[in-house]
């Protein structure tokens, strides 16, 4: 436990510089019971390792009795003095933050007049000071991109917040043991013993959009905080709410076109100016399209000369346009021409960089470009957001068709956005309720169809595809992306534009921006058709046929096979490679998903965790203790709390079942299945079997915390390769396929007959393919024992019980008969008569989980 003195010494700012060459990220964990101080230190080290690529300049953390809040910093503003966490003057509040807020100096000026004693010249401290002054309402006023953790009371209650456009991702995990959050899902997946039960609705999202929509991730207990939302945590419970909404409306009183153009010019100029803040070198992603060329114009207008970068393929590129813009504004300009071979060779690394599956092949070319950009600059400006604000996508043209009603209009828009309507075809559960259109309300509630389409994209495509892939790819190269079109003031202006200034006719997408830039950019840029940077998925798929099918086979015994219909996917793959007319994007979409689960997910589960052994078990030991009680791991065994109907009176250096010789016989039989094996002993009692079984590692679990305390007190010092856990056998705190031998002696008696199927499903889940399940037939436990009536349905009826086991997917391997049942001579529980009447022996069945 953390002593009072140690606790005060741990409340500090860790100022150790990391000598990595790689971006801003945050992570944290809050335990719902006390944990050892060294566990918190190890988790802090883990955070610094798992997110190191996001923060090359500094790692800092705030550690308390039950929590760690960490930040990895890319220093851009106040590079010398802005290390995080940053604290309030009294040290009781603080912030760990990822992002940039461009109106921070305005916030600071107001707070300085109120006497706030600033110690740094950073946007980070301005956000903290404004939060302490105005509370949650400050988030709506922040103009920028951010994901942050802000705490009060030393850290025992805190809020998480994500910017309104979702420019910075933020994931969180919650169970009975701890709450955790991180900038990347791989960090949460790296924590030991987390519940990674899959979320079928995320698969439905992905198969529709090629990415998942907040709050869903592929794991039920891991969520994405939606853009424009905040989460409050008080040490026990979480509450989420939206603090900002992206709503577009027709103006009540439209103005003249000249007035709109004049204001747009001013707001664009200010947006670009504000995003030049900082002390780090800045570059420009220049595609030669209208949006990035507009940024180039305003840079030039402010006499700012940045280096510009463009990427393409020999077969597909926009170099002629980007080259013309660079020459027009006298920019230092670099082209990167990427071969298909080079792109394919970097595919595996880039799927890992994306952190979670996103099937946008443009990500892969962007990653190659970022590798060159990072040699010169730390920050790069990009044109994301222009199409969403000013109606630049072709699918928006459906609003101009007078023959479409609202539903037809949305349907054409939705499918022309490269979304799919057949997700259920590739899911095992064909009747899974549809949740993938949960943001349809953005369209239905809008005052015009165009505003509805734009709003739908602002809540789905923009945060969960454009911003997500930009963050993950750029930050994997220690680059910060900035997006002038997502300036808050510019958005507020665009949100009140009439449709006539965005889409007056079929040939006038993004009308107001085209009109504004008509005389400011080369004519070829303003008049060109929208192209967008496309990477054809056939560049990858032509070389993936055998690997695709092999990957499907790898997943057949994994939990994902319970969600995805792998046979339907295999048929799709074969049809595609046999020349049937199937969209390559659909095949690529599924490939990225299955490759991630076969290759990336196992790496994230293993590579990023530096916790092991007892640390891993202690991290996730189940507890139902109320506040103020000791955790199970600390409880001292109490002789007065022994349930004598269940356990014999204990001996200090013996076992709680010292006289139970029939137990010893059964475990002696089991010993031959335990040599060099990972063994789980369900309903272990006091865990004395760990003294008998010569196994690689023994894990015992019992629902009685007093028995677990006895085992830890008396047996742990003797058996270093044993772990004793308190918990239910119906929800085992173990990973899938992690056990070689599962011992289930006198366990069925603890379970309601209606729960037997759940118990056997848990046993199959934790057993490795081919693993051994040893199970004794149930025995009589006394007239009023536990939840059972006098007789268990399978009590001593081995043939009946054998049928149940086989029906639940186990294979019979061996049967062992124990005679005589030694416990019948004991008088602790009067059960002799029932035993003599019902059976002359105990049966142990040895079953196998199928390979």
Describe this structure in words.
Helices cover 35% and strands 16% of the residues. The two termini are 44 Å apart. The N terminus is likely disordered. Helix 7 crosses helix 8, helix 7 crosses helix 19 and helix 12 runs parallel beside helix 17. The strands form four sheets. The chain has a seven-stranded mixed sheet with strand order 20-19-18-21-22-24-23, with helices on both faces. It has a six-stranded antiparallel sheet with strand order 2-3-1-9-8-10. The chain has a six-stranded antiparallel sheet with strand order 4-5-6-7-11-12. It has 851 residues and is α/β, with parallel strands linked by helices.
Keywords:
35% helix, 16% strand, 851 residues, alpha/beta, 6-stranded antiparallel β-sheet, 7-stranded mixed β-sheet, disordered N terminus, 30 helices
Short note summarizing the structure:
The protein is an alpha/beta fold and 851 residues long. Helices cover 35% and strands 16% of the residues.
């Amino acid at each position: 436990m953390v002593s009072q003195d140690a606790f005060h010494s741990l409340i500090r700012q860790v100022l150790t510089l990391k000598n990595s060459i790689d971006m801003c990220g945050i992570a944290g964990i809050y335990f719902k019971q006390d944990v050892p101080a060294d566990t918190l230190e190890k988790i802090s080290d883990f955070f610094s390792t798992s997110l190191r690529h996001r923060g090359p300049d500094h790692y800092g953390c705030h550690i308390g009795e039950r929590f760690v809040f960490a930040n990895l910093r890319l220093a851009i503003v106040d590079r010398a003095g802005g290390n995080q966490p940053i604290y309030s003057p009294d040290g009781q509040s603080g912030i760990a933050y990822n992002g940039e807020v461009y109106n921070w100096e305005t916030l600071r000026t107001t707070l300085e007049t109120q006497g706030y004693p600033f110690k740094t010249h950073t946007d980070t401290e301005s956000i903290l000071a404004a939060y302490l002054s105005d509370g949650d309402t400050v988030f709506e006023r922040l103009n920028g991109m951010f994901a942050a953790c802000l705490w009060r009371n030393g850290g025992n209650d805190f809020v998480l917040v994500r910017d309104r456009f979702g420019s910075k991702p933020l994931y969180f995990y919650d169970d009975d043991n701890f709450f955790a959050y991180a900038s990347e899902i791989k960090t949460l997946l790296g924590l030991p013993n987390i519940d990674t039960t899959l979320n079928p609705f995320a698969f439905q999202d992905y198969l529709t959009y090629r990415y998942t929509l907040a709050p869903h991730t592929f794991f039920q207990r891991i969520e994405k905080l939606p853009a424009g939302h905040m989460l409050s945590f008080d040490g026990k419970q979480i509450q989420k709410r939206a603090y900002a909404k992206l709503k577009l409306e027709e103006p009540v009183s439209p103005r003249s076109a000249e007035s709109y153009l004049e204001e747009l010019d001013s707001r664009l100029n200010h947006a670009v100016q504000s995003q030049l803040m900082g002390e780090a070198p800045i570059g420009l992603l220049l595609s030669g399209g209208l949006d990035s060329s507009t940024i180039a114009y305003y840079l030039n207008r402010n006499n700012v000369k940045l280096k510009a970068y463009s990427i393409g393929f020999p077969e597909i590129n926009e170099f002629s346009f980007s080259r013309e813009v660079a020459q027009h504004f006298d920019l230092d300009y670099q082209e990167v021409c990427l071969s298909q071979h080079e792109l394919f060779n970097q595919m595996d690394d880039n799927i890992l960089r994306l952190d979670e599956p996103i099937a946008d092949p443009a990500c892969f070319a962007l990653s190659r470009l970022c590798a060159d950009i990072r040699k010169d600059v730390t920050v790069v400006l990009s044109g994301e957001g222009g199409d969403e604000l000013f109606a630049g996508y072709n699918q928006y043209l459906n609003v101009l068709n007078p023959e479409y009603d609202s539903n037809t209009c949305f349907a054409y828009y939705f499918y022309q956005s490269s979304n799919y309507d057949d997700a259920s075809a590739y899911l095992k559960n064909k009747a899974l309720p549809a949740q993938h259109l949960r943001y349809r309300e953005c369209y239905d509630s809008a005052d015009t169809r165009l505003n509805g389409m734009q709003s739908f994209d602002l809540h789905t495509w923009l945060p969960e595809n454009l911003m997500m892939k930009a963050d993950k790819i750029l930050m994997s190269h220690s680059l910060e992306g900035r997006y002038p079109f997502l300036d808050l003031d510019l958005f507020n202006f665009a949100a009140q534009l009439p449709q006539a200034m965005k889409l007056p006719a079929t040939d006038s997408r993004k009308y107001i921006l085209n009109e504004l830039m008509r005389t400011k950019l080369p004519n070829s840029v303003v008049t060109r058709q929208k192209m967008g940077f496309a990477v054809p998925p056939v560049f990858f798929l032509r070389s993936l046929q055998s690997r695709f099918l092999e990957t499907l086979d790898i997943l057949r015994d994994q939990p994902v096979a319970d969600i995805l219909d792998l046979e339907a996917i295999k048929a799709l793959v074969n049809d595609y490679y046999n020349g049937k007319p199937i969209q390559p994007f659909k095949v690529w979409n599924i490939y990225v998903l299955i490759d991630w689960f076969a290759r990336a997910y196992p790496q994230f589960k293993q590579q990023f965790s530096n916790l092991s052994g007892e640390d891993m078990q202690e991290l996730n030991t189940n507890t139902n203790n109320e506040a103020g009680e000791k955790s199970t791991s600390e409880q001292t065994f109490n002789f007065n709390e022994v349930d004598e109907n269940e356990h014999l009176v204990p001996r200090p250096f013996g076992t709680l079942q010292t006289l139970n010789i029939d137990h010893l016989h059964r475990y002696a039989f089991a010993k031959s299945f335990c040599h060099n094996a990972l063994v789980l002993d369900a309903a272990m009692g006091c865990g004395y079997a760990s003294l008998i079984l010569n196994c690689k590692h023994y894990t015992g679990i019992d629902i009685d915390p007093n028995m677990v305390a006895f085992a830890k007190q008396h047996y742990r010092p003797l058996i270093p390769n044993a772990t004793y856990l308190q918990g239910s056998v119906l929800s085992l705190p173990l990973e899938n396929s992690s056990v070689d031998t599962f011992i289930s002696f006198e366990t069925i008696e603890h379970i309601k007959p209606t729960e037997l199927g759940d118990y056997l499903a848990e046993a199959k889940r934790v057993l490795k393919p081919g693993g051994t399940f040893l199970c004794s037939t149930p025995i009589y436990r006394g007239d009023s024992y536990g939840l059972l009536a006098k007789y268990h349905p399978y009590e001593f009826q081995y043939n009946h019980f054998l049928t149940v086991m086989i029906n639940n997917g186990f294979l019979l391997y061996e049967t062992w008969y124990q005679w005589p049942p030694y416990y019948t001579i004991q008088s602790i529980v009067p059960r002799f008569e029932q035993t003599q009447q019902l059976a002359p022996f105990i049966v142990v069945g040895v079953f196998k989980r199928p390979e």
